[in-house]
């Protein structure tokens, strides 16, 4: 690699890595379900890198060492390169996606369920004691799974807290459930991930995770609102 190209690659690395962190980064997980999604992303990324490398190796062999590949017939290329070669990679990627995806499903009953209603362009959260949150902030206990029961009042929205887990649609007249969990107390930003009108870009909310004893005290005091 030439010194100029090497310098450019090293200089660009911090800018590329900067996109892997931040309040809305899926590659900076803060909960077990988000960690599963991030792991799945990396498995898919490296799987694609392996496939790309294999194709490039064959390409360079065909271009610079064509005599080595002359013995192979078109049928060999179709069967070997088009069928046999991708199978182990695709089996690995598909199996990983199924295992990790199944772990994202809410099994059993979470100890806490919070109602969520989306409308243009705000979020309303309702705790089990019937208290509604204010200022588009929802409080949860850290280290415990929480089921969010999500619906919408007008059009389709999408509930998404990237550092805690995947997203799920908020559909009028229907309740979808997503289970999220924060490993540690802290603030985690969420947003609407489905375009819902001219105010869509302002439709953010905040998840505040507290130590369980602090959260319990807040619930006794009307969720601290």
Automatic annotation (TrEMBL):
**What job does this protein perform?**
Subunits I and II form the functional core of the enzyme complex. Electrons originating in cytochrome c are transferred via heme a and Cu(A) to the binuclear center formed by heme a3 and Cu(B).
Q: Which residues cross the membrane?
A: 38-64, 76-100
GO MF annotation, one: cytochrome-c oxidase activity
| Key word Cell division present | no
Protein name, UniProt field: cytochrome-c oxidase
Reaction(s) catalysed by this chain, per the record, are:
4 Fe(II)-[cytochrome c] + O2 + 8 H(+)(in) = 4 Fe(III)-[cytochrome c] + 2 H2O + 4 H(+)(out)
All residue ranges annotated as the Cytochrome oxidase subunit II copper A binding domain in the record: 109-221
Database matches in PROSITE patterns: COX2 (PS00078), COX2_CUA (PS50857), PROKAR_LIPOPROTEIN (PS51257)
**What superkingdom heads the lineage?**
Bacteria
Q: What class of enzyme is it?
A: translocase
The entry's family comment says: Belongs to the cytochrome c oxidase subunit 2 family.
Q: Which PANTHER family match?
A: CYTOCHROME C OXIDASE SUBUNIT 2 (PTHR22888:SF9), CYTOCHROME C OXIDASE, SUBUNIT II (PTHR22888)
Q: Where in the cell is it found?
A: Membrane
**Which organism is the protein's source?**
Devosia chinhatensis
Enzyme Commission number(s) from the entry = 7.1.1.9
GO CC: one term?
A: membrane
